Amino acid sequence: MNHIRGKSVLITGAGRGIGKRLALGFAAEGAKVGLLARSQAELDLAKLEIEQADGAAMRLRADVRQVDELTHAVEGMREAYGSLDVLIAAAAIQGPIGPFVTTKPKAWNETIETNLIGAVNACRAVLPPMIERRSGKIILIAGGGSAYARPNFTAYAASKTALVRFGETLSEEVRDHNVQVNIVAPGAAYSHMTDEILHAGEERAGRKEIEDAEKVQITGGAPAEKQIALVLFLASERSNHISGKLIHVNDDWRKFEQENMKPELLTLRRVQKI
């Protein structure tokens, strides 16, 4: 049974990377997708790819750092689709690569503004109508460094770790409004961020990061179908009993579809695989 067909799904950062990958996957399952990004060219291409596959999508050009732009985008999507059922906050930048003391403050701060404040702004925009309807799903996309130390990527790691704790805390605030908030660690996947790491070189990124990026460049990283399947599950009514969790694409999350999760499982306080 398709649990997402006909649902309206807003995806930030939908022009490329994991955001675009999820947009294509949700559209293929029959969701009405709102594509939100700063680049008009990337939005045009994503919409074209979805429509060529007989999917439904609309373009919403906005900067996630500007809450007014996000609010306007949400209003436009609700007018077009009648509702907003799911938010997937995937907009992110990698930020400066290298030892913290060598990074430029402006670039470091911009990473926090995009990765953390951008997701917070998206939640501010979608939550009022979700609370009013007493129904909604929010899925925040985390990343490397949110569950472990990541030298030379302090801005990215700090922003994603803060995003996890924000999601956990927000989930408690909106639980009684029947809105579920979860965080997904999608695993490494080949994207422009992979190229940024390789271009930075071992001296700035570190040997392990270069080795991991080279492996992702060859293999493609985590399979798209696994990432899409997890996010589809969290966006569906099948996961109404799950909220405030950090779930990695490689976790055995399917075992919890029919049972409740222990409170301490899959949180920032206790991060480990099932």
Nutshell version of this structure?
With 274 residues, the chain is α/β, with parallel strands linked by helices.
Q: Explain this structure to me?
A:
The protein has 274 residues and is α/β, with parallel strands linked by helices. The chain contains 9 helices and 7 strands; from the N terminus they run E-H-E-H-E-H-E-H-E-H-E-H-H-H-H-E. It has a 7-stranded parallel sheet with strand order 3-2-1-4-5-6-7, with helices on both faces. Helix 6 packs antiparallel against helix 8 (207-219). The longest helix is centred in the middle third of the chain and has 29 residues, at 105-133. The model has no long low-confidence stretch (mean pLDDT 93).
Keyphrases for this structure?
274 residues; alpha/beta; 9 helices; 47% helix; 14% strand
